[in-house]
Fold:
Amino acid sequence: MANKSKPIVWGVRREGRTLWTRNAVKGVSVRGERRKRDGRIEWRRWDPTKSKVAAAILRTRAEQSSLLPTPGSTCLYLGASSGGTVSHIHDFVCGADNHHSGQLVAVEISPRMVRDLVKLSDRRPGLVPVLGDARKPEQIAAFIRGKANWIHQDLSIADQAETFVRMATSFLAPGGIGLLSLKAASERSSEGDDNSRFQKAEQILMNSDLVLEERIDLTGLEEQHVVFTCSSCT
Ligand SMILES: C[S@@+](CC[C@H](N)C(=O)[O-])C[C@H]1O[C@@H](n2cnc3c(N)ncnc32)[C@H](O)[C@@H]1O
Structure:
């Protein structure tokens, strides 16, 4: 694997059109993904058709590492579902037995999904599942150790850009990076096509205190989706 693949950050490698993360729980797949050994290290396939973060990394025109949190950082994930993408972020932010001392707070409103997250966190120290509403900072503040270096929001709700600005304003550390995954169909604004909905969200980000870095089109990997990357300078 080492010969054919290229490291992006510690614990993340790119090989052709897919990504791999260094499995923090050897011998275990989270949602049936392929695993492979490379000496004493085990890698898990991070499928870009099932994870918008992985898709954005493959599609960005910026440095791929600039979209990812670094090992040991503090991360906030809004809309964690059952933890597919969360598990890959955990692989390199925390690592086995959280030897990087990272923290990944994963917020999800569905109790059924949170049950899966709790199970996942049993073997993944550093992963903190939170049953709560990701639009409400006060439901999250008690669980996160200070500000986040990295935020990803992936909520199937309307008004996602406004929510993202509010949450990033509350939690993103200076110099931190925020990713907003946006599905056109979830946006309330009915006038216009997908592109005008994305444009409206882009305008909201540009009018905020965040710095809009890039709009990444995921067509071909996740239809009707874009990922906006933003940074915080305050
Ligand atoms: C598209 S899925 C997320 C997929 C996940 N990010 C992944 O890559 O595996 C959206 C999730 O957001 C959750 N959600 C919707 N509204 C929410 C809210 N207000 N607060 C927290 N979670 C919410 C849904 O229950 C759903 O699990």
